[in-house]
Amino acid sequence: MSLKIPYSQTARKFRGTFGLGSGPSGRIKRLRMCVTGLIRHERIESTFARCDETRGYAERLINIASRHGDKDKYAMEVADYWLLEKDLIHKLFKVIVPRYENHRSSYTQLYMLPKELPGYGKDMGVLELKGNPWPQVVPKQRETKYFLTNMLVDELRKEHHRTKRSPFVNKILETTADNIDIDSIQNQYIQDSLVDNDEGKTKNVQSHDNKND
Amino acid sequence: MHARKLTCLCFRNFPIAHKRFFSTRKLSNAEVRRKRNDLFEAEKQRQLSLYERIEKVEVQYTGLPESCTLIMNKGISTPYNCAMHMTEHIGNQAVLALVNGKLWDMHRPLMEDCQLSFLHFRDEDPRMVNKAFWRSCSFILGGVLETAFKEEFYIQLCSFPKPDVRSGSFVYDVDLDMSHWSPSSVELRCISQIGSRLKEKDCKFERLDMTIEKAEEMFTDNKYKLQQIPSIASKSESLNHVTVYRAGEHIDISRGPMISTTALLNRFDISAVHKLDTSLSNTMYRVQGIGMPTQLQLHYWTYEQLVNRSKKLNPALMPGTETQTDILESTEPAKQQAVD
Q1: Residue B64: which domain range?
Q2: CATH number, domain with residue B263
Q3: Which end of chain A is more exposed for a tag (fewer CB within 10 A), N or C?
Q4: Which CATH code for domain A23-129?
Q5: ipTM of this model?
């Protein structure tokens, strides 16, 4: 199984999340709390590193749950381990898994928040489950494709590329037939160019002759 | 001037047809314009006088600053008047109105209870507005060409094709009364300046529906328009009406809709003049130009590239082929988008 998000092979250590010397068990405890919070509230805000680390575990959890279903012992054990509040096991299998039934991309979305000064001193992030009921983090941008200026500039750019493209590519794009025979077009193109060159040569020869005369 | 008066006096006793013939041949563009304006004004007053008793219509406006209901005068109040009740900004910036889902000119009177909203250049999908702007630019180009030349050249506007923004230039096909004319860049710039000065003049586009007879009387001095009027009328909604627009002193036939005023036109450049080979006339030219609205900014380098592109001969329909003016367009936005 591969996650549909970019992730690092080396884990962040999170030393001292619960005070000095909390160690690897402290890290796991922190991540379990974050995953539980994510499934509970569907959007959490924390340091960017912690959100990023949580993301991989949350994705894996949802993936296992959707793959094996709630009647599988292994899936149930994993859910039981990661979700500290046990009522969320029901939510995971009955609400979140059906939501991502026809989903092709990742289940979660990660945003970096702007730096706050004076503030916590670390990069902050927002991690959310896709399809949550909250308002959008990034507001929807206005469509500017059909502005008069943009339409004109768009056509200008297309025309520019059309003229700059090689005649060989243009010929292929111009043919509207379903089965394009690229080899024949290429051969024809080579022949045409050879003919052009021959003409050029003959012209040169003639000019030389004239000079000799 | 004297000579023409004399000819008129000489032929006073002749039958009317002869007199008409002479008078049409001798008029200059300025006099024709004055005559058309008088006819337009008279027809407008006549249509206004039909509403002796003022009736009220209920207009439900949706949009900024807040949705509201207005009580307006039937056949007199326009969407622009509605905008005046809200803020000055809306009246200045709105290009077209949407009345009951149909595109409506800003200065066209409202006829019934309706839903109203305004369209701008910076909407999510301003394609209809762009088309109206392009059409209005063609209209203005016609007006500029009629005023630009000396009196000895009798300019007759022929037609302008459907607006197509993607072609990169708006077009007017015109009979310039000169067999060989290739203007220099300075000449083109001088003519373009007449159009770009319209921004300060702030001429509003007025719309008037009239019968075929009235339209023929108005365009007797233009043989091309006179020829087109029956086919244009047959394709109108009521099958016997012609829609005429006026901006400033220029009057032309178009199905519309047009933009609100010429103040929305910022840059206006006539880029090229091409001689056409048509059966209609030996002195037919295709004049092309490009313009920009006030609300949209563009870097001067990019604009220069666009001007260079607009110099190519526009591939739109030539005059003399079947569909001459932009009469085949429907006024419903959904259909037009499907065409796009």
Answers
A1: 56-119
A2: 3.30.980.10
A3: C
A4: 3.90.1030.10
A5: 0.85
